Amino acid sequence: MSETTFNFCAGPAALPKAVMQQAHAEFLDWRGMGVSVMEISHRSAQYQGLAEKAESDLRKLLGVSDEYAVLFLHGGASHQFANIPMSLLQENDVAEYLCNGIWSNKAAKEAARFGSVKALNVVTQNSANLQEITPSESWQRVENPKYTHYTPNETIEGHRFSEVIQSSGAIVADMSSCILSEVININDFDLIYAGAQKNIGPAGMTIVIVKRDLFNQMDFSRLPKIYNYQAQANNGSMVNTPPTYAWYLSSLVFEWLLSQGGVAAMEALAIDKAALLYSCIDSDDFYANPVAIKNRSRMNIPFTLKNTQLDSLFLELAEKERLVGLQGHRSVGGMRASLYNSMPLAGVQALVDFMQEFKRQHG
Ligand SMILES: *Cc1c(COP(=O)(O)O)cnc(C)c1O
Hints:
By secondary structure, the protein is α/β, with parallel strands linked by helices. 34% of the residues lie in helices and 18% in strands. It has helices at 17-25, 45-62, 77-88, 102-111, 196-199, 229-234, 244-259, 262-282, 311-320, 345-362; strands at residues 6-7, 68-74, 94-99, 116-121, 123-125, 131-133, 147-150, 153-154, 159-160, 170-174, 191-195, 205-211, 287-288, 300-305, 323-324, 335-338. The strands form 5 sheets. The protein has a 7-stranded mixed sheet. Strands 13-14-16 form a 3-stranded antiparallel sheet, covered by helices on one side. A two-stranded parallel ribbon has the order 1-15. Helix 3 (77-88) packs parallel to helix 4. The radius of gyration is 21 Å and the shape is globular. 44% of the residues are buried. The structure holds pyridoxal-5'-phosphate. Pyridoxal-5'-phosphate binds at residues 11, 76-78, 103, 151, 155, 174, 176-177, 195, 198.
């Protein structure tokens, strides 16, 4: 039996072992202060230093210039489902939402509470009965949208857009489950947001990267100040007490990522990890993944057993092998393996070994 537990949970998700060990080691005494980092003022010089270092490391990792503000905000990605249209969507504006899964649909539905939204269904069941994102030429696009929102990686269905979306309006992307896992050109986007609990840190914090130019198109006059992106940018995300411990853990993750070779190294590893698992799933019809190859996610890989009656036995035996968090989302069932940056190749290999053995015994 394996000594190591590999956690495939979709979110809140596993953090890098080295980061957890460092946080553990300095839990009671941070940098010789004799207290925990969560017990000190966010205005203290020590905490300010941490906050600034985290921001500059994240800028380095993603190549973010000073044209963009980087915000460390309270709450989940779902807060941004509201915060974005509340800020950007004025009377006479239309927002365009590309919808291909549960999260993008939720984002569109929430935005419609604040203004005019056109939601485009961009996913279809292809002739091989696989979910496929339709070609952008076939979409009935909005003529002059205030912004176009999409979800480059749909966490529940396991879809990935294979291209960056273009729009005559601003490009807004929910990168909650793929940020820092592939190289992006930041200039392709006007606003990126990501809940921390998938690929950054613990739950309770969301990162927003927003082009400062976009502030000119936002109306903050009727919003609570706490939702005012520009005020947050002007105050180093400290309009009020920020989620200091989540910010701290994220800072350790950014340092860890830099030490591992940054986002390019994570992307290469993600491609290898996903290829290993998909090739096991595809080797015959015992396992199946429902997504067309060009749109398969590298981060979240749902799979089913041909005989669904074996699902609970599969999960039970996997857990005995210390392969945890494999249960599919309650809305789709089956299994799902999330392979975020913290998952080593050895974890995917252990899962594949288990899957092959399970097939040998039950196929
Ligand atoms: C998890 C997730 C969300 C929701 O995040 P909360 O922090 O629970 O609000 C939104 N979008 C995507 C793509 C996600 O993966």
